[in-house]
Amino acid sequence: MNGILPSIYILLAIFLWSSLGVVVRLAAIEVHTLIFYSVIVSLIVQGIILSRKTYRKEFPSPKLLRYPLVLGAASLINTFSYFLAFKYTTIANAVLTHYTAPIIVAFLAPLFLREKVTKVIIISIVIASAGLWIMLNGFTFNKGDAIGITAGLISGFAYAVVVILIRIYTQSFNPVVLAFFSNSVIAVLLAPFVREFPVNALWAILVMGIVHSTIAPILYFKGLRYVSAGRTAVLGYLEPVIAIIFGIIFLSELPGKGSIIGGLLIIFSGYLTLRGEK
Question: What is the pLDDT of residues 152-162, one digit of tens each?
Fold first, then answer.
């Protein structure tokens, strides 16, 4: 596959995921409930896709099912710890600790994927980290933030693990199959905590189920078949930039100068990554 096309798949997935904050804000329901029902919708859509004859042979043997199960558990830890960070500390602390993931990936990739850490990746990580730091106006730490910051660091590590796992598993699994079993794990783990169906947020459930939990993961998994874990993590830095743009359009949240300057640095780091991929 052309070197630039897989990166475009990942960028499209990031673009779709960047709208998640707007959907969650407008849905105004418990996050775990929204995640659970959106995953159920995605499982229905993915199940219809997998019912086709061309996909039946893509199902893994029972011995290999443990790999998507591990991915689903890691994804859930990533999501829950990320939102836990938002609950106990500032958004700045939560996001900054979460986006330690690219640095963790850069160190884990050579160990688990035998990928080389190139100068372009290192420079991109430094630039993107500086941009995110500027966007968040620096790191503030108070004693009361300890739980949230710890949760943010856990989410950053979990996200790094997710990137590594997807990079490994997409070499052996069809992206739709991998997404289906990963979402199945999330649904099973969340089911005991869901008590009601929020009819007023049905639109959000459908959008998240089809767009954020089906289309975006498939694009992301497909891109990760050919894009290194390090470059993928750096491209992920574009998510907060796009999220700010969506906030301006749909929530009228205007960014400050720091957000604009930091966003430009992050976009530049993404450009360097794409250029290196090409």
Answer: 889 888 988 88
- The residue ranking higher by pLDDT, 44 or 265, is 44
Q: Which two tokens stand for residue 213?
A: 């939990």
State the pLDDT at residue 255.
66
Residue 223 main-chain phi, psi, to 5 deg? -65, -35
Asked whether the beta carbons of 72 and 153 are under 8 A apart, the reply is: no
Burial class (CB in 10 A: 0-12, 13-18, 19+), 123: middle
**pTM (predicted TM-score):** 0.73
Mean pLDDT of the chain: 79
* Residue keyed to tokens 């958004």: 91
Helices (H), 113-226: 119-135, 146-169, 175-190, 202-207, 216-224
**Greater confidence, 242 or 15?**
15
Please check whether residue 94 is in contact with residue 101, taking contact to mean a CB–CB distance below 8 angstroms: no
Position 190 scores a pLDDT of 93
Please, are residues 75 and 182 in contact by the beta-carbon 8 Å criterion?
A: yes
Residue in 73, 46, 48 with CA at minimum distance from that of residue 174: 46
Closest to 167 in 3D by CA, of 121, 104, 227, 116: 227
Tell me how far apart the alpha carbons of residues 39 and 33 are, in angstroms, rounded to a whole number: 10
d(CA 153, CA 8): 28
Q: Is the dihedral of CA 139, 99, 113, 123 positive or negative?
A: negative
One-letter amino acid for residue 276 of the chain: G
| Three-class secondary structure of residue 170 per DSSP | coil
Rounded average pLDDT over 167-194: 83
Give DSSP secondary structure letters for 240-275. HHHHHHHHHHHH-----HHHHHHHHHHHHHHHHHHH
